[in-house]
Design a protein that fits this description.
The chain is α/β, with parallel strands linked by helices. It is built from twelve helices and 21 strands. It is globular, with a radius of gyration of 21 Å.
């Protein structure tokens, strides 16, 4: 189903953001590894977390995780270390195109039994679980931090613990830091020196835990205020002392005219209208924010050069291709001057149609980053259901603030 969106009268409201799926998924894996069924409060209610939870509770031989990349990486490691477990992990056609060889090779070097069911280096994979020996591995740090996190979380169960040497450059470091902080929250020490992580053989000490709200989801509300140029929202459940690297967006959006004031139960964001003439930033540590900033800058008429985007090509879709293709429909010629870099010089040509239809490529962030454009012109978002991957209530929340959503089959 698609949605047609336009905008009339703005309403400043309080938004209850979804819980962080990055934290939810890590805590679920840590709890599963520990074997202790402690309660997790405010667990994310979205496709990615639902898929992971179902897989952890499944007794089926074949486990289909659909398009959930985090689940594929984390479950590969989890089932590899689980004795007496035999399963096949598979997914969507796009998932079968997303590489997993580096993680599989690392696990096999540590004693795992994993084989490819179809194409070498890609899902589906057959996993026979066993206690892993552990030891030392070297891993490229510029592919996916989820490989590193997957290995870290199962490391305490390895006979000899684990030493991970990351070969620079290392991308998405805040996500590795998030995994380290959560492991330490549950009693496992993770030492870090330069690009080396050390985890000894030990046990998690589980206790009830409450998941904080999602900073990635907050980015779309910052985008809306930046495009409106006035107004305010209160985003419940966010803190400036949280674990998520994407909280950097509060600082970054100052350049695009949105300020943040942290209160006891969340953050109040206000449009200031004060914007920079040009923006440059390296998103290597916050790749999930890239689509929001690219779209926002284009529709504010702010030229930009954003680097550190190499990992976007192996996400739910090739996000660099998707962004360039969809923005071209609106007259923006966004270029890729070199690998992992997106730039725009501020020139806009004529649009193709009055109401433009935005393809989402089965990518939740494409839908959510483009929807706020309705502040400036009516648009159509294809396959509106993709937002369920991380923010199922997104369309309802938009309607609360003055957006008109027309559902079309």
């Amino acid at each position: 189903m698609d949605v047609l969106i336009d905008f009339s009268t703005a309403v400043d409201v309080e938004i209850q953001l979804p819980a962080s799926k990055s934290i939810s998924n890590r805590v679920l894996i840590i709890r599963a590894v520990s074997g202790e069924n402690v309660p997790i409060g405010n667990l994310a209610e979205c496709d990615d977390t639902d898929v992971l939870l179902r897989a952890l509770n499944s007794r089926n031989h074949t486990i289909d995780i659909g398009a959930a990349g985090t689940a594929m990486r984390f479950l590969t490691a989890y089932f590899a270390q689980k004795p007496h477990c035999e399963c096949r992990l598979t997914g969507s056609e796009r998932m079968k195109q997303r590489p997993i060889r580096l993680l599989v090779d690392a696990l096999c070097d540590l004693g795992a039994n994993i084989n490819y069911a179809e194409q070498g280096g890609f899902p589906p994979i057959d996993v026979v679980g066993k206690q892993l020996e552990g030891g030392k591995i070297r891993l490229k740090g510029d592919v996916s931090s989820q490989y590193v996190s997957a290995l870290m979380m199962i490391a305490p169960m390895m006979k000899n613990g684990l030493r991970i040497e990351l070969i620079p450059p290392v991308i998405s470091q805040p996500y590795i830091a998030l995994t380290r902080q959560l492991m330490q929250t549950f009693g496992v020490d993770v030492s870090e020196e330069e690009n080396v992580l050390k985890i000894t053989s030990s046990r998690y000490q589980m206790h009830p835990y409450v998941v904080e709200s999602d900073w990635s989801a907050a980015s779309y509300w910052y985008e809306i205020l930046a495009l409106r140029g006035k107004g305010a929202y209160f985003l419940r459940g966010l803190t400036n002392k949280g674990l998520q690297g994407d909280s950097k967006l509060a600082e970054l959006f100052l350049a695009l005219g949105v300020s943040s004031t942290f209160e006891d139960e969340g953050v109040r964001i206000v449009a200031t209208g004060e914007r920079v003439a040009r923006m440059e930033y390296n998103f290597v540590n916050q790749p999930d924010l890239a689509q929001t900033f690219v779209v926002t800058c284009c529709f504010l008429g702010i030229p930009f050069c954003f680097s550190g985007l190499g990992s976007l090509k192996i996400k739910e879709t090739d996000r660099i291709f998707a962004l360039r293709t969809e923005l071209a429909k609106f007259g923006f010629e966004v270029c890729e001057p070199e690998n992992g870099v997106l730039a725009w010089n501020g020139v806009r040509s004529e649009m193709q149609n009055t109401i433009i239809s935005v393809a989402t490529y089965n990518d939740h962030r494409m839908a959510m980053a483009f929807a706020p454009i309705a502040l400036q012109q009516p648009i159509k978002i294809e396959h509106k259901e993709v937002v369920s991957k991380s923010y199922p209530t997104y369309w309802k929340d938009l309607e609360k603030t003055g957006f008109h959503i027309f559902y079309k089959k």
